[in-house]
Specification:
By secondary structure, this protein is of the alpha/beta class. About 30% of the residues lie in helices and about 25% in strands. The strands form 5 sheets. Strands 3-2-1-4-5-7-6-8-9 form a 9-stranded mixed beta sheet. Strands 10-21-18-19 form a 4-stranded antiparallel beta sheet, with helices on one face.
């Protein structure tokens, strides 16, 4: 049974492309390619013996229906395999009844929900070769915030046997302070630099029936990031991990530079090992599984999940030996300063920013950092802070710095348009990132945020790194020795 072409799929792509890029980024909207939908559904359905026609399936961020459409087609194919004849009333009724009993979606966007409903009606009509009742499937896709306080109910039931999909990837920096506080009240995994996809994990685990399965494609950062420690802990407490498919590059979604992974969990259960797949995207072949292995389930509560073929992990452990981790030799590892408008806060030293000298610091970019060497770009950055006891920073009183006032007021409209002012309600002349201390005078190791080779250099206490660089503040080790190790092979 081959799948017919779907005009609704083309409509959903056109709709997404019509949404302004800024709005897509704010809401984490991205179209999930058909090959990826099929790959995720294969993984989700392969780990169970429960027949799909008796499985309540939810896409918690259904958008315009990419997953719902493929689930519906698989249901139809299953009924055909069981001998159901769609050309007779009993058969057509069985298909429509099964779809409405098994396929559910949720999304905040009412227009996307309308497209999703149409896509299922369109597919059902083509499968049956006859008109579909006008209200068919209407209540199966709800316009609702999956992470909101209102719980989902379909046909009086809020439990699902399978939750599958591609949740939005929206980092803390794109959320308002009020929204972040609300999410932290609702979710134990809303920690540090939280991303909405992590909260989709938590809400989905809450809605799964015992033995139910969860299959989400998300960024792979949650496997190791510090902010995802509560999420990893929660996953191990509430579920067992069946499969993790890791992609080798970011060439998975069009227009989204994210290295993803697919995680398949089972609510409850007692898995002894994780099936680890290493995947790539091949031109003309779709998704290719490059290697398969089994790895032990993580046992350390919340610790990073370093997943790889056990033979590679054994080699890595031999190389690592008893050497200390970098984090044990540092006070802080952080990205450099983000202003939200480098064109206003950063300028060449000559002629320089026309502000009070005590508010200026020499700046350096990632591109200026070479192995063991920093090429001074002769830039300066305006830091609107004064420093008291223990180097504690305080945002300046504009009355005390008339030259800075005159300079910044010229660009007030641009500064107020920044995300940190509009959404986070920061003072209009504040920096985008928090200024925690005057790192300019602190000895530190600098490194570009992106580089093809090791490029670490020691700054004995002169530069303020911009956000295209990272800085490492070492403790308990000679900085020059650490730079040498970091630049080595």
């Amino acid at each position: 049974m081959g799948q017919p072409e779907s005009p609704a799929s083309l409509e959903s792509i056109a709709y997404l492309e019509a949404v302004p890029l800024a709005e897509r980024r704010k809401e984490g909207l991205v179209y999930t390619p058909r090959r990826l939908v099929d790959f995720i559904l294969d993984l989700a359905l392969d780990v169970t013996t429960q027949p799909i026609e008796s499985t309540r399936i939810l896409d918690p961020a259904s958008g315009s229906g990419a997953f719902l459409e493929q689930i519906t087609f698989r249901l139809a194919r299953r009924l055909v395999e069981k001998g159901v004849d769609f050309s007779v009333p009993a058969g057509s009724g069985a298909l429509l009844g099964t779809i409405e009993a098994c396929v559910f979606g949720c999304d905040k966007d009412p227009n996307a929900c309308a497209i999703a409903r149409r896509s299922i009606r369109d597919l059902a009509g083509r499968l049956l070769g006859s008109p579909i009742p006008p209200k068919f499937f209407d209540s199966n896709v709800q316009v609702k915030d999956y992470l909101g306080v209102d719980k989902l109910h379909f046909n009086g039931d809020s439990r699902f046997d399978l939750i599958v999909g591609n949740p939005p990837y929206v980092t803390t920096s794109r959320l308002s302070t009020a929204h972040k506080n609300e999410l932290r009240d609702l979710f134990s995994s809303a920690n540090g630099r939280v991303d909405l996809y992590a909260l989709f994990f938590e809400r989905s685990l809450q809605l799964l029936a015992p033995g139910g399965r969860l299959a989400l494609i998300t960024p792979n950062k949650f496997l190791t990031s510090e902010s995802a420690r509560p999420l990893r802990r929660l996953i191990l407490q509430m579920s067992c991990v069946n499969v993790i498919a890791i992609f080798r590059s970011h060439r998975v979604f069009g227009g989204a530079a994210t290295v993803p992974c697919v995680t398949v969990l089972e609510r409850g259960g007692n898995a002894q090992a994780i099936n680890l797949l290493e995947c790539d995207v091949s031109q003309g072949k779709g998704i290719v599984v490059v290697s398969k292995s089994q790895v032990d389930c993580p046992r350390q509560d919340g610790e990073p999940w370093f997943l790889a073929d056990p033979r590679l992990l054994e080699v890595a452990q031999l190389i690592r030996g008893t050497h200390a981790h970098l984090r044990a030799l540092t006070r802080r590892i952080s990205s450099g300063m983000a202003t939200g408008r480098d064109g206003l806060f950063v300028a060449p030293c000559s002629p320089g920013l026309d502000v009070e000298p005590e508010l200026k610091r020499p700046a350096v970019r990632g591109q200026d950092i070479l192995p063991f060497q920093i090429c001074d770009p002769k830039l300066e950055i305006l830091i609107p802070y004064v420093h008291g006891a223990n180097n504690k920073p305080t945002l300046i009183d504009m009355n005390d710095f008339p030259k800075a006032v005159a300079y910044l007021e010229t660009f007030r409209g641009e500064l107020e348009a920044r995300h940190c002012v509009r959404e986070w309600k920061k003072t209009w002349y504040d920096l985008h990132d928090p200024w925690l201390e005057d790192i300019t005078s602190v000895p530190k190791i600098l490194v570009p945020d992106i580089a093809r080779s090791n490029r670490f250099a020691l700054d004995t206490g002169y530069f303020c790194p911009l956000d295209s660089a990272y800085y490492i503040i070492p403790v308990g080790v000679h900085p020059e020795y650490l730079v040498a190790v970091l630049n080595s092979k």
